[in-house]
Amino acid sequence: MTVSPKLMQRIRQDVQSMHAYAIQDSAGMVKLDAMENPYRLPADLQIALGKRLGALALNRYPDGRVNDLRHALAKYAAMPEGFDIMLGNGSDELISMLALACDVPGAAIVAPLPGFVMYAMSAQLQGVAFHGVPLTADFELDEAAMLAAIDTHKPSIVYLAYPNNPTGNLWDDAVIEKIILAQGAQGGLVVMDEAYQPFASKSYAGRISGHSHVLLMRTLSKFGLAGVRLGYMMGPKALVAEIDKVRPPYNISVLDYECALFALEHAEVFAAQAKDLREQRARLQKELATLPGVTAFPSEANMILVRVPDAAKSFDGLKAHGVLIKNVSKMHPLLSNCLRLTVGTAQENDQLLAALKESL
Q1: pLDDT digits (tens, 9 = 90+) for 188-209
Q2: Is residue 346 one of the residues assigned to a domain?
Q3: What are the tens digits of pLDDT across the range 256-309?
């Protein structure tokens, strides 16, 4: 059934020209395309969580227990005194809420490119100007270009992913500090996006208390709960209180917050999984470095960006061998012939390496 032209006129033209967020079909594949934690809950914890979820009052709207999760996350993340925390249905919802809250006349959002696609998408959907600033050839922040963009566009928000997606690297702290100071001087926000914090050697969390215009955003997706969709953001109480006004009521379901509370009560299980994935990442980096024609870039996340002679050929070859990764070669000119590989279990990584050798 087709939609009438008259009805289509009621849908924004820019929305019609967009592409929906694509999810690759992973049925029967070794799934290494979405930076997920490959480990499921141990059997005993599955049983315990099942009983806990089964006892919930699903006939009621989420209650004040969501605040128990806020307090647990604040403790887990060592939130500074005088700060507050708000929750989102994944980091994606928090990014959308930021664009909505900061949509003042002439508003703009600035972020380095290549970077997380939702920064630009949230701006477009809200009708806010987005200005992407290319990274250098080795995926570092272009200090002069970032400072110039702040000076020229006076953005409401600057996003800095730490580490970055899809490049996986942490940027120079001195450059980050200059960007934060410049953005603060012109009265804008900086959002430090630490989605991959469980796998990184450093965090900005210890420094956010020194700035009244910096928000720290994280997610439990990489912690090991991608299916739960739970993001959180910390910042000065007065600032968070303003952004919280655009949050939809009951945006975190009872199932989601109970799963998250359960996971935090067993944080050591997820910490052990993250440790294993960091070790697997190091092993993958070492193995990839031996493959002819392959450049593996340094990573502080649970993914590795690699450049191969022919990204399309290698992607298709991997898929033919039952291994699904992400072809990011068309995302940005700096990513020419690049693939993004999620770090999996030892067995999954064995299959990845074997298939990649064949696909080359």
Answers
A1: 999 999 999 999 999 999 999 9
A2: yes
A3: 999 999 999 999 999 999 999 999 999 999 999 999 999 999 999 999 999 999
Same domain, 197 and 210: yes
Q: Are residues 184 and 278 in the same domain?
A: no
pTM of the full predicted structure?
0.94
Asked if the structure places residue 343 within a domain, the reply is: yes
| Domain residue limits at 321 | 5-43+268-359
Q: Do residues 106 and 251 both lie within one domain?
A: yes
- Secondary structure string (H, E, C) spanning the chain: CCCCHHHHCCCCHHHHCCCCCCCCCCCCCEECCCCCCCCCCCHHHHHHHHHHHHCCCCCCCCCCHHHHHHHHHHHHCCCCCCEEEEEECHHHHHHHHHHHHCCCCCCEEEEEECCCHHHHHHHHHHCCEEEEEECCCCCCCCHHHHHHHHHHHCCCEEEEECCCCCCCCCCCHHHHHHHHHHHHHCCCEEEEECCCHHHCCCCCHHHHHHCCCEEEEEECHHHHHCCCCCEEEEEEHHHHHHHHHHCCCCCCCHHHHHHHHHHHHCHHHHHHHHHHHHHHHHHHHHHHCCCCCCEECCCCCCEEEEECCCHHHHHHHHHHCCEECEECCCCCHHHCCEEEEECCCHHHHHHHHHHHHHHC
